[in-house]
Design brief:
Blueprint (H helix, E strand, L loop, with lengths): L7 H16 L4 H4 L6 H5 L17 E5 L3 H9 L12 H6 L22 E2 L8 E7 L3 E6 L14 E10 L3 E6 L1
Antiparallel strand pairs: 1-6, 2-3, 3-4, 4-5, 5-6
């Protein structure tokens, strides 16, 4: 399947994107808001309150040519040992993540609840599902592996995925 993150050309391209990101730190601000409108960047999102004082954050967005109800199932199954991350599978596996990107919706991973564990890589500590608004928002959260809480919450990292309806039967997929 073309565009599934498994092809050699895609992964070589991904490696060059990573290298470019590392070699151009001055473009970090631009990358931190890639694809997100100023309206989207200025609003609050579910889970924003999980990390009291974030050191940095980003909001990336893309318009998907499918309605939100068709996009959500792909978000609900995200994670290692689940649907994958729909990214550069070979690069992730080169560093031992053991990711397999699904090319279909997996019924067994559609029920997601707060407290569920989502792995980013095999052997890595999982992130916990902190917020679920079915069809709209999935926010993962984790603590400092050294046990040092930020702002007393114990949460030092969060990763949110948001699906919103857009005009013309499309949707917006955002990651923060």
């Amino acid at each position: 399947m073309a565009g599934d993150g498994r092809g050699l050309v895609e992964n070589v391209g991904g490696a060059f994107q990573i290298l470019w990101a590392l070699l151009t730190p001055l473009l970090r601000k631009r990358r931190a808001r890639w694809g997100a409108s100023s309206l989207e960047r200025g609003r609050a999102w579910p889970g924003d309150d999980l990390v009291a004082r974030p050191r940095w954050q980003y909001l990336n967005g893309i318009t998907v040519g499918a309605p939100a109800e068709e996009v959500w199932p792909w978000v609900a199954q995200i994670g290692q040992g689940r649907g994958g991350f729909y990214s550069f599978e070979r690069l992730e596996n080169l560093v031992g993540c053991r990711i397999r990107n699904s090319d279909r919706v997996l019924a067994e991973h559609q029920q997601i609840c707060p407290g569920d564990a989502i792995r980013l890589a095999e052997g890595a500590p999982p992130l916990a599902v902190a917020v679920v608004e079915p069809g709209r928002a999935l926010v993962l959260a984790g603590g400092d592996p050294r046990g040092e809480p930020a702002g007393g919450s114990g949460v030092t990292v969060s990763w949110g995925f948001y699906v919103e309806t857009a005009e013309g039967g499309r949707s917006r997929l955002l990651s923060r």
